[in-house]
Amino acid sequence: MRRTLRREAASTIGLLADEQDFAAMRRYRTFAFDDHTIYLQQVESLLKTLSARGTHARVALFDPEEYAEFCAESGIAPDAPASRSRFTAEIASAGATVAYTGQPIDTLIPLLVGRAVRRATWEYGTALLAGLGECADCGQDIGHAAFDRASHLLLRLLETAGPGTHHLVCSTPTDNEHLLAVLHTERGTTGPARLESEEGAEFVTVLAVAVALERPGGVVLRTSSAGAQDRVHGWRLTRGNLVPLSAGEVFSAYCTDADTGEPVAPESHVEYCAGFELGADEPEAHH
């Protein structure tokens, strides 16, 4: 009976993804590992064992600094396996996790780090929108109005893009961070586009920040269809509207290294196209 119950109890592992975080945990006497490579091998072995037993396992990113703060706030001893287990449960309930489905550890770590970055972006954007308060002229909540506007823009974009597999990127600067969101979606010849709710919320949040702050945000859409070249379209965000870029502007933006400004060779089998008009402009662009 106990073995049966054990198979139905989900497991979450707090993973120290890089050597710096691993080194920070070595100051605790009860942390038994002294080699990061061996540690990752043992984590992967444990995940395989859990999966073989039919146990659902997830992996969460373990941050030593957040762990130390958690222990101090909770009044628990940090140098104890029970404390690490408790912290892992906390971050799994509120943070970013990845389900183990047999991925190699080298594949799992980038997925986990990417999920954590997306989660942090969403939390930062949400907090920023919530702190904007009400418009002095009309009394509307600025963050709420911007989120509604961004949701409308995304829906219009997906409706107008038509069928295909769509990859969207939205980016905008803020005072402290450069926010970036990515959204993958598919749309058949009939019906609306299918998108994952968490990715959709993250994308809309970043777009809403650009709308609310009137920052120079941008959106790029890449569409793939069977038997055809990929098409890339682009828009700049201006006063709550997505303004289409020309084909030349899309080519320049897509074929320039964002960090160095150096040209990047265009991809083969890709057509760089002007952004298209999104049509109806409701809800109102300005609160």
What is the count of DSSP helices, taking H or I runs of 4+ residues? Answer: 9
- Tell me which oligomeric state these chains represent: single chain
Proportion of residues in helical segments: 40-55%
Q: Which class of secondary structure composition applies to the elements?
A: alpha+beta
β-strand percent reads: 15-25%
Number of strands: 10
In whole angstroms, how far apart are the ends? 61 Å
Textual characterization of the structure:
- This protein is an alpha+beta fold and 287 residues long.
- The chain is 44% helix and 20% strand.
- It has nine helices and ten strands.
- The strands form two sheets. Strands 4, 5, 6, 7, 8, 9 and 10 form a seven-stranded mixed beta sheet that branches.
- Helix 6 packs across helix 8 (197-213) and helix 7 crosses helix 8 (197-213).
- It is globular, with a radius of gyration of 23 Å.
- 28% of the residues are buried.
